[in-house]
Amino acid sequence: MVSTECDLAVIGGGPAGSSAALYGARAGLKTVIFEPGLPGGQIAQTDIVDNYPGLPDISGFELGSALYQHALDAGVDQVQHFVDALHRKPDGSFLLNIGSDEVSARAIVCALGAKARKAGFTGEDTFTGRGVSYCATCDGMFYRGKLVYVIGGGKAACDEALFLSRIASRVIMLVRRDQFRAPKGIVNKIQATANIDVRFNTLVDSLAGDALPTTIVLKNVLTQQLTEERHNPGSFGVFVFTGFDPVAGLVNEYVDRADDGGVITKEDMSTKTPGLFCAGDMRVKPLRQVVTAVSDGAIAATSAYNYLALI
After folding, report:
1. Other beta carbons within 10 Å of 303
2. Is the Cβ–Cβ distance between 78 and 35 less than 8 Å?
3. Which are the catalytic amino acids?
4. Which branch of life, at top level (predicted)?
5. Nearest to 180 by CA among 156, 162, 163, 204
6. The whole model's pTM is what?
7. What is the tens place of the pLDDT at every residue in 247-276?
């Protein structure tokens, strides 16, 4: 354990957490960042980030790592472990349970992000990791020269479909609605890509097989008609990109949450609990992007500094 006490504990090492840790350290706060996994959060699993201002066509891994390392270079301590539980003490500070250890923090910035939302079809859990994936960058290479189905009609689904089109022989996009929910520019790219086919008003009803899936059943949401498509084992994959659910269970009792599960914060990232700030994709916001996560983190850490200056 790096330290048993700190001014600011930052939970999560994605763009929001890295930014918060950097701003906390630069404000002179003794700052510790807790990140058990790959630095950079979800963005580290993205092939190319083409909309971060000033850094066109940078890889997600490179960007996420750079953000995290910048914080460490500023003097932030890191703990590569989950925060198992968080409690607010009578004096208003917080106690974090880290395995068998404890860390006391005067303020918290929680930036746990969001996790991939499952599509909910029969067989999804059974074949996760064996035909069903939620990350094209992670698993796309397993399907080089093969067929892939992409579930979703938003920007993330379109981004991943374009990425997979450079690897797979054919990409079939299954869009539940009658149109995309993505910006026109990326939709134009989808329509111009020869090996991407789009099926609107369609979802996956079930996936079946033995060790690997061999049968996918598609459902037309308008007619309810089921269509069964059979393939050889290992010859196709299903990639799910239907959105993300905010990860906020750690702080659930200390925050208010919206219908979509996002944490409700003020503009300064504060929650209903003094000293607890939330940033990034876990909070309610109109746009979940790296640039907004970085902004959230900077605001949260600055707000934490101002809060600590008054107590």
Report:
1. 22
2. yes
3. 135, 138-139
4. Bacteria
5. 156
6. 0.79
7. 999 999 999 999 889 999 999 999 999 999
Domain that includes residue 229, residue range: 118-240
CA distance linking residue 18 with residue 5, whole number of Å: 19
Place of tokens 């860390």: 103
Spell 16-40 as b/e; 16+ CB within 10 A means b. Answer: bbbbbbbbbbbbebbbbbbbeebbb
Q: Residue 5 in contact with residue 53, Cβ under 8 Å?
A: no
Q: Which of 64, 50, 147 is nearest to 113 (CA)?
A: 64
Q: How many CA atoms lie within 13 A of 285 on its CB side?
A: 25
| Last residue in a domain, options 191, 224, 240 | 240
DSSP bridge partners of 173: 150, 198
Q: How far is CA 55 from CA 13, 63, 275, in A?
A: 20, 9, 34
Phi first, then psi: what are they for 151, rounded to 5°?
-95, 120
Same domain, 89 and 102: yes
Residues whose CB is less than 8 angstroms from the CB of residue 216 and which lie 6 or more positions away in sequence, other chains included:
149, 204, 206, 207, 228, 229, 231, 236, 238
3-class SS at 40? coil
Phi, psi of 227 (to 5 degrees): -125, 125
Residues 248, 207 share a domain: no
Q: What value, to the nearest 5°, has the Cα angle with vertex 75 and ends 4 and 106?
A: 40
C-alpha neighbours within 13 Å on the C-beta side of residue 288: 21
Do 232 and 250 belong to one domain? no
Domain boundary among 193, 219, 240: 240
Q: How many domains does the chain have?
A: 2
pLDDT digits (tens, 9 = 90+) for 114-142: 988 999 999 999 999 899 999 887 789 99
Structure tokens at 167: 């690897």
Task: Give the tokens for residue 75.
Answer: 């003097």
The Cα–Cα gap between 8 and 252 comes to: 19
Report how many helices (DSSP H) and strands (DSSP E) the chain contains, helices first: 6, 19
